[in-house]
Amino acid sequence: MSTIRTNVRSIALPLARAMSAVAYGIAPAWTANTIRAAFFVPRPFPTRPHHQALLDRARPFTVTTLGRAVRGWEWGEGPTVLLSHGWASRGIQLHRFVEPLVAAGFQVVAYDNPGHGESDGHHSNALEFQLAFDAVRARYPHPAAIVAHSMGGVAALRHAEQTPLPVVLVSPLYQLRRELSTWAVQAGLARHVFNGIVGRVERALEVALDPISPHRIAPAIHAPVLILHDHHDRTTSIHEARQLHRNLAAGRLIETCGLGHNGILRSPSLIDQAVRFIVEARGVAAAPPMAMAALAGK
Fold first, then answer.
1. Has residue 280 been placed in a domain?
2. pLDDT for the residue 28
3. Residue 59 exposed, middle or buried by CB count within 10 Å (0-12, 13-18, 19+)
4. How much is the mean pLDDT over the chain?
5. Are 224 and 288 in contact (CB under 8 A)?
6. How much is the pLDDT for 10?
7. Is residue 199 part of a domain?
8. Is 70 helix (H, G, I), strand (E, B) or coil?
9. Distance (Å, rounded) from C-alpha 199 to C-alpha 79?
């Protein structure tokens, strides 16, 4: 049966790519809108009872981006730590960071990106993630640190480039356009069709993809950055994390095995290391780059 599925997939994907290329060549605007509706809609993230219990104890807030409500929650008092989730997820997926950070004296802020969770919309993309992060950051303009998972790390690094502060990246992306393009091709899109759709989104939002890509901005970041990445991550490669680490002035990389892309968020020992990293980094983010490099272990 697995052989049959593999053979069907090997036929269906090239056919889908060819069909998307033909349709885009005939009616680019219609095809772009149709594909955007199909491929840029995240799967719903299941909210468990323990997630809801934590949300019920939070102070909710709402900000707006692109005319859509972005809903979030805050816990605790003190310097703010922002939690930035990835694709097809929710802010509450990073819930295991909340209580340890609150116990360490921080206010913790999580939010749902556009088209995710309780925020407005049905579709989203990496550029809308950036705009949503900017809207949340405007409400909390001086965060003490950021914890980000997967695609959520793109906006986190861009902020660290502008305002040095400690960042924890879990399963991050590195070459944004290349990785998104690879996902699109694996889903059945012709690569040039995906690039054309991205170009349309860039023009509509007036935000370019490449300037916010981690591989472009990493060399300019001197803030302490802790990267957590698993060898069995099938979404973002460990090789991408290693490249990112090499290009950071004050980066530290912890590699794990057997946790995967999302399971790494459930590791108590890694969460403990991340919280200690943030606690130790307080007061260091404004120090000279050599001091930050020492914190990161370089």
1. yes
2. 59
3. exposed
4. 84
5. no
6. 40
7. no
8. strand
9. 38
